[in-house]
Amino acid sequence: MESSGRSRSDVELDLQRSVQAVLRELSAQAPALQSNQGMWRWSLHKKVERDPGKSPALVRILLRELEKAEREDTRHVIIPLLHTLMYVLTKATGIPEELHQRTYAFCTRLLTLPAPYCMVALDCAIRLKTETAVPGTLYQRLVIAEQNLANELYPYRERVFLFVDPELVSPSVCSALLLELQAAQEQQTPEACMRHVVSHALQAALGEACHAGALQKRLQASPRRTLERYFHAVVTAVEQMASEPSPSREGHLERLEEIYCSLVGPAVAARGRVGGDSLQDRPPSIPLPSPYITFHLWTDEEQLWKELVLFLRPRSQLRLSADLEALDLQGLGLDWEMARASVLSTDSGIERDLPLGADDPPGSPEMERAGLQRKGGIKKRLWPPNILMPSGWDGPPGLHRRTGQPSGDGELLPGVSRLHTARVLVLGDDRMLGRLARAYHSLRKRETQKFCLTPRLSLQLYYIPVLAPEKPMASRHSDLGELAAFLGRADPWFESIINTLCPAIHKLAKMPLSLDTSQTVDPFILDVLTYYVRMGAQPIYFQIYTVKIFFSDSSQDPVEDIFLTELKVKIQDSRFPKEGCSPRRRGVAEVPGAELLICYQKALLSHRAREVTVSLRATALVLKALPDSNTEVSGPTHWSPTAAPVTDHMCLNVSVTEVIKTSNLAGRSFSTVTNTFRTADIQIQSQDQKLLTLSLDKDSQRTFKDVVRFEVAPCPEPCSRAQKSKASWLSSHGQELERTQAKAKPLLMPINTFSGIVQ
To answer: Of 176, 548, 589, 719, whose CB neighbour count within 10 A is largest?
Structure first.
């Protein structure tokens, strides 16, 4: 007994040290730990994954630290500890009901705190209430959705789309990530996932009365048809009990005991009730499979929409995307042109040629659209007069936002309103996010024409910065990693888990490649990706800006584009030709820069419109949509560029390098000074025939030359033709619209983090 108590205290002491290491990293009190940033959370979860018996001790330690943080009002550690605790509770079995009740009570107390603490606590409380009533529900639903296991009572599906642009991320990084995904998916067959679900549900419900070793052996020996029968029986028992308003634990245990006895036999079941497993016979823990992740090479902005359509109506059951064939895993002769050609669409462009999914019922919009054919002439499409965008696209940000009905008469399960969830995870720098913003805008614009994805799909966006390894960290944050640096300042857990992942990815890419996917690989990067897409449920919304560009050639039509992080203006050396212009006299020094006429609406906290027009000479101009590191990050849903927490006031930070002329005895000289101001929209025009060059989101592919004028404003939410016609009909009949209704809503792009913006 003494040795057992001593070993238990040693285990708790080891877990306590690991938790303290995580807390020190969050508090930035241990500079020596910076080399291991991001590893402490991973190693802590690995300890309980290798030895499930440590889970109750870890839950107690995390609860104790959370209650201490609540007493001492150290809020910056609450959300990271709460996410760590919920991840353990989802995977573990044998957690006493008393610990579930204490965690639930703690989450309910957090509801009095401001956002984002109350939002994270609400999500945890809802999940804990279900898990306490029916143990094993969270694990079962997570595996079913992520692995697309077919059943009737929980038909929700999830998929993670990993997008990598080969122009921004090196081929070695692409190949290394692909190999790690392949190695994990080789071991996650549907049969293995069904065995995990059955075993976890029975162990979570029966506890020590379940002979885990005999159960897993029996499941391993069961054929596919028998395994499916037990899987559906367990899912039915758990989901029916979870859907009841006041579930009965006794009745639930009786149903699962019948399934358990049928699996292992009455003799083994009786032995398990008497003594349970011995320590020597106890099997390894039940793993939580990583999500179904598909790897995609980013080729164009339409690819995102195409992949989402194929997710809803898949053409095949391939585990990996077809464009992976273009990757040379040995690093020999990687041909990116072939990679791009391999993902081109091969359909005819007619919607009826797209095969229908198995979950498309008769009479559904997909069945009706399948009857459309391409005919000659112009075909007018009748739009219902009251069709509007579903509230999920532009509703108030929140964790449990209702986003349309999946089918029929309402939600299938409380708190879940859509059948499918697409988690789009992009790797790269600010340039990749700029391209993602264009794809997101294109997708939203396409959805105003026909609702193909909106009613059935919840779209979640995630971002992992992968920056050039040869640049120092300071210059990377100021150059191509500004948005990642902002996310790290807004969410300390994002900084600790995600922003520190970039060195590990480059380290993995330097390792020798192996085509043997049966070998066990280091799961660190895949585990971090999995943890991010599972626990990162708090979005930070970023304003997308539209820019209209006018060129010196009057025959060239103006161009409209968008940007997310930055618009940079440079002065070209050449002038555009002007009739009657005399040549410049020799010996006269040319003044640097160009004369610019700047008209903007000054950003005021009072929201009153104040137009400002100024003419000045400048050598450069930068418009940034992100605040710098000296600006306080505030606001529960999206950033506010001012120190005050004004959550609905977004603006551009404009920096102008102005030329100052000075005259003295030595002659005329010039100096420069940088002026900054904030604005919601701006128009800039060159007045002395100097041409401008615009660069959007630091992307060389999105550079516009020979520009004489451009206009920048917040990108409005795309609206359907029905909405436009309705507004014009009201105005034509003399009915005045309120200013709040007449003003178009801005288009915000959400990027999921763990906490949102921590105040």
So the answer is: 176
Q: What is the 3-state secondary structure (H, E, C) of 71-112?
A: HHCCHHHHHHHHHHHHHHHHHCCCCCHHHHHHHHHHHHHHCC
Per-residue DSSP letter, 426: E
Helix axes 190-206, 212-221, angle to 10 degrees: 150
- Cα(84)–Cα(91) distance, integer angstroms: 11
Out of 167-176, 304-313, 362-371, 382-391, least confident range = 382-391
Please, which residues bridge with residue 602 across strands?
Answer: 679
Give the C-alpha separation, 80 to 124, whole Å. 13
Using DSSP bridges, classify how beta strands 667-686 and 457-465 pair: parallel, antiparallel or unpaired. unpaired
pLDDT range class, residue 540, cuts 50, 70, 90: very high
pLDDT tens digits, residue range 233-243? Answer: 999 999 999 88
Q: What does each C-alpha distance from 165 to 193, 336, 529 come to in angstroms?
A: 31, 10, 17
Residues facing residue 685 across a β-bridge: 597, 709
Whether residue 626 contacts residue 648, with contact meaning beta carbons closer than 8 Å, is answered with: no
Lowest mean pLDDT of 231-240, 272-281, 314-323, 434-443, name the range: 314-323
Burial of 495 (0-12, 13-18, 19+ CB in 10 A): buried
DSSP letter assigned to residue 197: H
Closest CA relative to residue 46, chosen from 58, 61, 64: 58
Task: Tell me the sheet residues that pair with 546.
Answer: 562, 713
Distance, in Å, from the CA atom of 527 to the CA atom of 181, rounded to the nearest integer, reads: 11
Which helix H or strand E contains 440, and what residues bound it?
Answer: helix 430-447
* Distance from C-alpha of 714 to C-alpha of 632, rounded to nearest angstrom: 22
Q: pLDDT digits over 427-450, tens only?
A: 999 999 999 999 999 999 888 877
Give CA angle at 34 (30, 38), nearest 5°.
Answer: 110
Q: Which residue has the higher pLDDT, 285 or 388?
A: 285
pLDDT on residue 587: 46
Beta-strand (E) ranges in 289-384?
A: 293-297
Structure tokens at 124: 């945890």
Strand pairing category for 157-164 and 420-428: parallel
Residue 385 pLDDT more than 90? no
- Helix segments in 162-292, DSSP class H: 171-186, 190-206, 212-221, 224-243, 249-264, 266-274
Kindly report, residue by residue over 96-153, the tens digit of the pLDDT: 999 999 999 999 999 999 989 999 999 999 999 999 989 999 999 999 999 999 888 9
Q: What angle do CA 643, 539, 173 make, to 5 degrees?
A: 110
CA distance 563 to 546: 6
Q: Letter for the amino acid at 619? A: T
Name the band, by pLDDT with cuts 50, 70 and 90, for residue 712.
very high
Task: Report which of 461, 186, 151, 188 is spatially closest to residue 308, judged by C-alpha positions.
Answer: 461
111: which 2 tokens? 């509801």
Give kind and range of the element (H or E) at residue 594: strand 594-602
CA 373, CA 349: separation in Å to the nearest integer?
Answer: 10
Amino acid at 711: E
Q: At 664, list the tokens.
A: 């003295």
Q: How far apart are CA 556 and CA 497, in angstroms?
A: 48
Residue 314 pLDDT class (50, 70, 90 cuts): low
Question: For the range 243-252, what are the long-range contacts, defined as Cβ-Cβ under 8 Å and sequence gap of 24 or more?
Answer: 243/413, 247/133, 247/134, 249/133, 252/134, 252/205
> By C-alpha distance, which of 507, 489, 506 is closest to 756?
489
SS3 category, 696: strand
Q: 131 — alpha (psi -120 to 50), left (phi > 0) or beta?
A: alpha
Q: How far apart are CA 62 and CA 107, in angstroms?
A: 13
